[in-house]
Amino acid sequence: RRLAAMAEETMAKSPKTEAPVPIRLQEILKLQDVGISEQQIRFTTLTMESDKYICVVEKTTESSKVVIVDLADPTNPTRLPTTADSAIMNPVSKIIALKGEVERPVFGCNG
Questions:
Q1: Do 66 and 57 meet the contact criterion of CB atoms below 8 Å apart?
Q2: How far is CA 32 from CA 2, 25, 42, 57, 108, in A?
Q3: The whole model's pTM is what?
Q4: Which helix H or strand E contains 89, and what residues bound it?
């Protein structure tokens, strides 16, 4: 009930010429601009933890790397070698969890 009242209040404050928008979308960056290939941007290789981190597992014929994009500094992604299939960052501390066929390690990423 309280949420409905808050939503009505928010909608009432919106300009009458526009339809009420419950969520505001804003583009922060294009992953291609930080060197991530479009072929690597898939649900199976990319994870996003809250509004803080994006992790992408890049696999090429030569190597496999996890790319960590800190959205506080998106122009300086961190690339680490890995054999993992997917990765996700802890939103509170710099800890990354990796998932693969054999192991599921968790690493601290203080650096």
A1: yes
A2: 41, 19, 13, 14, 26
A3: 0.69
A4: strand 86-89
Residues β-bridged to residue 46 = 56
Render pLDDT for 86-99 as a digit per residue (tens, 0 to 9): 888 888 888 888 88
Using alpha carbons, list the distances in angstroms from residue 16 to 19, 20, 37, 50.
7, 9, 42, 31
Report the run of H or E that residue 99 belongs to, with start and end: strand 95-99
- Beta-carbon count within 10 A of 98 CB: 20
With a CB cutoff of 8 Å and minimum separation 6, the contacts of 80 are 65, 66, 68, 109
Using an 8 Å Cβ cutoff, are 56 and 36 in contact?
Answer: yes
